[in-house]
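tool_call: predict_structure(chain=1)
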Amino acid sequence: MELKLYSRYRNSAGQRVRTALNIKGGAYEYIPVSLDGGTPDDYVRDINPQALIPSLVIDGEIVTQSTALVEFIEETFDGPSLLPDDPIARARSRAFGQVIACEMHPVIGPKLQRHMASVYNIDEAGRKAWYKHWLAEGFATLEALLRRREKPTAFCYDEKPTIGDLYLVPQIYNAVRAGLNMSDYPLVCELDERCRALPEFDKAMPQNQPDYTGEI
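tool_result:
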């Protein structure tokens, strides 16, 4: 199977997919998409009409949206499962990831930031305040979910990394970059540290991508 992943070093959705492929041992070609000046016209025309990354080309077939791609990787590749065996833990791991993918990520994405600036004239300070507010609210939810676990586990909902962990690590990178004080979320930070010690997560980090610019 030939895989081409269109992404960017600081694309958190793409980082989820990179980590999933690393855990499963799926080989892929990394194709960086520069967002300087907006999404390239040829990418929008030929790959993803939504003008978002990542996109995965699978033997010539294009699939978008990181959640769909992570599920595809789970269903297609051998290797450690990205889901717990227990059905309730499996649902909770998915839900944990969806707090990030559906509630946190969409309201702080660069597309929305640009719209706020161009249409509503919200300055950089206002955009940063917005960004940090929704990050803080989301991490408070994630921390509360982890505290509610009947039995603490090494990772979100299992003794191995699952989908929730794949989504968490890139979002913490975004939060640190934004200057959010993470001291209120000790369980979240503990999971992040444990995940980042694994080579599959480390290999997917922004600083280890070929298009990394040196800027966090």
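agent: The chain has nine helices and four strands. Proceeding to next step.
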